[in-house]
Amino acid sequence: MDDGGRVVRAEQEEDFRRFVIDSRHRLVRTAYVLTGDYARAEDLVQTALVRTYRAWHRIERRDVPELYARQIVIHLHASWWRRVAHRSERPVAFLPDVATADGTEAVDRRDQVWRAVLTLPPRMRAIIVLRFLEDLKETETAEVLGCSVGTVKSQTSRALAKLRTHLGTEAAAERAAATTRRAG
């Protein structure tokens, strides 16, 4: 029996177990990209899997239960973000540590892009994650987020513009810092 008093068939239990084994890693990856914190990502996925289990008998599209679970992860993150936004702590665009060029340019660039993604509002970040990390189509992204395809397109465009601006500003600041270090 599940905690709602309904009998869960052994076949459904096995289906859910296989679903968790097959999709948990991808869900954690999505949650991590949304939160930037592995422990928080694990918590989001665990809660999403519990909610998915409770609704397992109601999920209409058995061929894509991962979309349902991913949608829960995104909604949980948005709810968490709204609560955190009212606290006094705020993420910062620049970390005080200065990176040095030691042959890890690709890693530095990936980190720079990652920090830029973390500056996006939760909905834009979710769209970027679903479209470019999870490689979902616009229609699939719209379905997961419960919005129109037009919203996905416009939010993607705005998010990419913000990322370009942020990354351009950050690159200019790094070039100026490097010039100052060489001159000094």
Automatic annotation (TrEMBL):
Listed Gene3D superfamilies: 1.10.1740.10, Winged helix-like DNA-binding domain superfamily/Winged helix DNA-binding domain (1.10.10.10)
GO MF assignments: DNA binding; sigma factor activity
Domain RNA polymerase sigma factor 70 region 4 type: 111-163
Source organism of the structure: Catenulispora acidiphila (strain DSM 44928 / JCM 14897 / NBRC 102108 / NRRL B-24433 / ID139908)
GO biological processes: DNA-templated transcription initiation
Protein name: RNA polymerase, sigma-24 subunit, ECF subfamily
Family: Belongs to the sigma-70 factor family. ECF subfamily.
Lineage top rank: taxon: Bacteria
Ranges for domain RNA polymerase sigma-70 region: 24-83
Assigned keywords, A-Z: DNA-binding, Sigma factor, Transcription, Transcription regulation
